[in-house]
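anyone else get weird line breaks when pasting these?? whatever heres mine. first is seq + tokens for prot A
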Amino acid sequence: MVNSVPPNSSSIVPANNQNFEIFSLIWLDQDVESQYIQNAENKLRSNINLIKKFLYVKKCQQYVEDLSPADRVVMIVSGGLGQQIVPSIHKLRQVISIYVYCMNKERNKRWSKYFTKVKGVINEVDELVSQINTDRQIQRNLDEPFSHNLFNVNCGNGTSTSDINLADLGTHFIVD
């Protein structure tokens, strides 16, 4: 569980800010310590190990920009703060999706429709949690076939991986 944070701080993370999982969630909201956000955070923990919360746009943006290009971040932003940060972080490789959690869906849909990484403008906590969990599972399924199928290329039952021609194997990969 993440401890309460002072207004000018952010959530506690592992020592040296190291996250051994490349997938994490960042929540930017002025009400980040409210009970309804705490409840949503508890529900999200089943699929996401690291949840980092911010009150301020500049600190959040700096954190995202400082992440390794290998890291993948899902962001939840409030409507007002989202309008400020999304244009700055939208093109960063680390950001894979953004959800706007707000009270005024129509107003926030107008500005967010120009950003393809915004996957939803949502005003219900349960809908937000459900959408993130669903999208997270889809992302896992997209990421896993590569590792599961690594040695299935041109291999039948009983074929040893030592019999694979590495030159042929290399033609089956597309490197990002």
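and prot B, same format (seq, then tokens)
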Amino acid sequence: MAEQKLAAAIKFDYPDDAVPQVVAAGQGALAEYIVEVAEAHGVAVYKDPPLARALGQLELGDRIPPALYRAVAEVLAFVYSLDQDKNRVDQLLQEV
């Protein structure tokens, strides 16, 4: 049997937020919807099923617990690198 799709979304507004918080989580159709909404709004999607499972155990609005800091930091670093790459491409396109 195929494993059910999981998804979670976090929000982190540095420096206003000290710790990221869970703003959406679900499985199955809800997980698919979370991913669709993220993609429709240009939000990066990072695949890490164990992290999605762990975040799904939290209540919406909960801050990320210290045990998940490293995993969430990897996600944030990934998103930051995507933003930097996009900024470089945008800058190059403006120079053409």
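btw re prot B: Residues 6-95 form a domain with the name from scop fold (CATH 3.40.1690.10). The beta strands are 6-11, 21-27.
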